[in-house]
Amino acid sequence: MALIRQRKLTNQQLRRIDKQQAQQQESIDGSLMDGVVMAHYGKQLEVQVTSLPAIIPDPPIVAEGEPEPFWQSIDLGDIWRCHARTNLPMIATGDKVRWVADPNTGFGRIESVQPRTSLVSRPDRYHKLKPVAANVDILAIVFAPLPAAAPSLIDRYLVVCHHADVKPLLVLNKADLLSIQDYAFTRELLTQYEDLGYETVLTAAPCPENILHGAQSLEQPDADLGLSHLQDKIKDKLVIFAGQSGVGKSTLVNALLPESDQSVNVISTNSKLGQHTTTTSRLLPFNPDDLSQGGIVDTPGIREYGIWHLTPDDIIAGFIELYPLAANCQFRDCKHTYNSKGCALWEAVADGTVMQRRVESLVTLQAEADTPTY
Ligand SMILES: Nc1nc2c(ncn2[C@@H]2O[C@H](COP(=O)(O)OP(=O)(O)O)[C@@H](O)[C@H]2O)c(=O)[nH]1
Ligand SMILES: [Mg+2]
Ligand SMILES: [Zn+2]
């Protein structure tokens, strides 16, 4: 066995190292500031300045005739390109971070990540689970009379919300079509989820198809069929919109954001790194100057949200009315299928205390989670 020779340092050397480290730490501490991750491009991130550092660096003094060196002042609300320290866990859009900015390069470095209130993850194309949005308050599950709502998809998103610690909000969009298309079915569906304790809201997004926009709803003569009820519910919150294609997510998101052109104030750097291509997700604030007023995390691909990473127990935990009943099933490993012996869920279906389709949704999702697709 090879002997590892430890170099012995004298006390004086140790003291000197301690002092150097303390000095380095002090200079980092003075430059540290708060920020929020606004977008994520693989290795690079965009961070918005939400507090200024204790020590604000002075711009260089340029002698007459000398060329001006690159200098980027640190201002509240600006967005900087950043790298993360290598030893940090994976960072997501919406993360609150402590970071330092270097005015000489226009680049920042994330030093630490603050504790999260919630974390939405999804598998990347290699089926590896990636965090995509942190500190999201609400996941808006959007559905519509047309294309017709798929209740099992709503149940799937409710499971996702439960697992990510995000509050679900059921948004029935295209309410202008309610009086003519599938009225009874869609209204009943909404009531079912309200009875389970979930919040719901009706919207009609401003768009050419919406002929009733601005007019009064047949159902709620006093209600304006626009966005105000949704706006009330997501005020000061960070929201993700999910749901089937064609239900109006993009239309809603565009109507909720202050400028249709979501160009952001990204600090240009003197680097030659070129343009970024894809982003995993981006935070679009309701008020770009005040992130505490919330916003929308635009996350491509959340539609195809797989649940293979969840266990059957995780999944039933997301069925809030079924979860407490499962303890009464005759067998601990009950699959809760129609002919499972002594299944408490099906007894409750027979009693009419729970909905059959919710139990069927549960069984489908648990089976899916049991059979990974990769
Ligand atoms: N009638 C009606 N049409 C809508 C409403 N919201 C969106 N649409 C239309 O539905 C179609 C799909 O909308 P889009 O926002 O692209 O859906 P997404 O796939 O969920 O992002 C578009 O033609 C929209 O103009 C609405 O509230 N009422
Ligand atoms: Mg869209
Ligand atoms: Zn059972």
Short description:
This protein has 3 domains: 16-54 and 70-113, OB fold (Dihydrolipoamide Acetyltransferase, E2P); 119-256, P-loop containing nucleotide triphosphate hydrolases (Rossmann fold), CATH 3.40.50; 312-370, Orthogonal Bundle (Ribonucleotide Reductase Protein R1, domain 1). 26% of the residues lie in helices and 20% in strands. The chain is built from 9 helices and 13 strands.
Would you kindly provide a written description of the structure presented here, covering whatever features stand out?
With 374 residues, this protein is of the alpha/beta class. The protein folds into 3 domains: 83 residues, OB fold (Dihydrolipoamide Acetyltransferase, E2P) (Beta Barrel), CATH 2.40.50; 138 residues, Rossmann fold; 59 residues, Ribonucleotide Reductase Protein R1, domain 1 (Orthogonal Bundle). Helix content is 26%, strand content 20%. It has 9 helices and 13 strands. 33% of the residues are buried.
List the helices and strands and how they pair.
Elements lengths: L10 H21 L1 E9 L2 E6 L29 E6 L11 E7 L4 E7 L5 E5 L5 E6 L3 E6 L7 H14 L2 E6 L10 H13 L3 E4 L25 H7 L3 E5 L6 H8 L25 E4 L9 E4 L13 H6 L5 H4 L17 H8 L4 H15 L4
Helix pairs in contact: 2-9
Distance between the termini: 43 Å
What would you call the quaternary organization? single chain
Query: Helix proportion of residues, in percent?
Result: 25-40%
What structural category characterises the helix and strand content? Answer: alpha/beta
Features:
374 residues, OB fold (Dihydrolipoamide Acetyltransferase, E2P), Rossmann fold, Ribonucleotide Reductase Protein R1, domain 1, 3 domains, six-stranded mixed sheet, five-stranded mixed β-barrel, 13 strands, binds guanosine-5'-diphosphate, binds magnesium ion, binds zinc ion
